[in-house]
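Project standup — Tuesday

K.O.: blocked on the structure for the chain from last sprint. Re-posting the sequence here as requested.
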Amino acid sequence: MTEPDEQRRQSVRAVLDAALAEGRTALTGPEGKAVTDAYAIPTPAEGLAECADEAVALADRIGFPVAMKIVSPEILHKTDAGGVQIALASAAEVREAFTAIVANATSYDPKAHILGVQVQQMVPDGTEVLIGTVTDPTFGKIVAFGLGGILVEVLKDVTFRLAPASKDDALSMLDSIRAAEILRGVRGGAAVDRDALAELVVKVSRLAADFPEIAEVDLNPVFASEYGVMAADVRILLTTEVPATRRTYTREEILVSMRRLMKPRSVTVIGASNEQGKIGNSVMRNLIDGGFPGDIHPVNPKADDILGRKAYKSVMDVPGEPDVAVFAIPAKFVPAALEEVGRKGIPNAVLIPSGFAETGEHELQARIVAIAEEYGVRLLGPNIYGYYSTWQDLCATFCTPYDVKGGVALTSQSGGIGMAILGFARTTKTGVSAIVGLGNKSDLDEDDLLTWFGEDPNTRCIAMHLEDLKDGRAFVEAARATVPKKPVVVLKAGRTAAGARAAGSHTGALAGDDAVYGDILRQAGVIRAPGLNEMLEYARALPVLPTPQGDNVVIITGAGGSGVLLSDAIVDNGLSLMEIPPDLDESFRAFIPPFGAAGNPVDITGGEPPSTYEATIRLGLEDPRIHALVLGYWHTIVTPPMVFAELTARVVAEFRAQGIEKPVVASLAGDVEVEEACQYLFEHGVVAYPYTTEKPVAVLGAKYEWARAAGLL
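H.V.: unblocked you, prediction finished:
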């Protein structure tokens, strides 16, 4: 860090230390001015007046008109206290305002310590925006940007990013709010200085990130114009809370332990049983019946033989060096057994039992975490259904076995969701590389799994159901490393919960949990699924679709009604309908009847034979200006569903053999035969769904979202 930077930090440190030494949790206006000046955050010229005469003298020096605001550590919301007056244009008005502001503040809070009145330069007109930071329990310091003034409370048009934010992050924030067009200038108005506004976001985010004791920063309003930006009001709140430190592991440490978990050579089952209906019996049967080729060692002090395998009285008696210990014993016995696992040197413990933090037994869970950390054992669970690693023929669970190998890795915090994943995979013939339960996430969590699946050659897409994140920043770091290589889909449960916490600023009140999750997951490059079915469909479909090479999407449909709905879906999913140039329009018209419609959608009409579908699809694939195709089919005897499916698959395969790979999705409307046709198309590289125009386009939109996040568009 350069010397000026260190001086800047030290000046802020002195202000914060002084306030905290007095037991205060908020800076006064003049203190806030000192902090913002240190970070080159533009604020109006101002001064503190302790009497009316000083206020008049300050106003004369600053220049009329001025604003005046009460300064009191106890009064944070100055307007509510009647402690703000603006546009004061003369000495008489300033003198009168000083008296009124002090009187109002005294009436509002008779015990408040009034330091004086802040006299401030009136800020030039501009668009009012808010810039602020809060300390989020999941992601730590985050920065917010949105419309300011009174509109912020009404419209709540705010977006969030991790702090410190980069210049690119800040510029993306300007475009992410619903009112982004206002910043670009509307109805003849000038656009704001985007660079100056983005730089201000960066500075505020850096300030918050540099000082853990800054709980919230609130600049509202900030006036932005074509000439620059200026923060009219600054509020800075402090905290003495120190975030709990979490044990962290290096990337290599994670990969080493995860490799032994997901590709074990030897598995020990603690609590293995011969008795049907016991979890320990189900786990053993799944391991044996699933064909796991490694060693399976049952541990049970009361048995000599379990399902034809020699049983051991203790983990310490198990031969060799097992990679995984699967626990199928009651929670109260776990600590003692985990001690033995640690002494044995087993690196992974899969804790199926419930009865820990989820039932209020926080001390018991903390105890097993401490034991695991002492011995270097990584914990999966507790309170899980186990896990599947299909490429290893490993089914370490008491639930339904599953062994269809494929490229999709799926994780869930919930056992019920895990079994929904299983049923979906079986019904849709979706091959998986792994299905992992996370449960209470006492140790291993999503960022560990992301790190592994990002490197796993058998995994092409990752889908995760989560209710929370233990360490949001670690997840973002793992996601950013993974997304350039393969898509990550997240279903975040609890998005409708009341997330806004009690806060002392506009920014804090607006930082509802789901709003923060949504923006920061997007910043990490993951695709957020709106529901369980969407998460599963995205995971199933994204590996099937080639990566698009551009934004031009063309709809070819046999039904005008479907074309309209597909067009709506294109817009809803952030895609772009291509403007068809005249020569391409003429080429399409050569294949469709006079009563059809070219343009986009290309409506070939419903009575057309297979040759019309084939000719128009061929044209869409061969023209390099078209980057993706959306097909709308409806069931006719002229072109039956399987005829459509077979010709579409054949043409797509022919072009892919030539190196021309474009994403193609299809919506099929008709009788039940369209279901078989969709399955056939899916198996041949075309994502197709019956009875819906929304789902195929949503999947295409997800593919585009990933391609943009991965830097491939």
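K.O.: great, moving the ticket to review. Residues 345 and 614 are 62 Å apart (CA to CA). Residues 497-510 have pLDDT under 50 and may be disordered.
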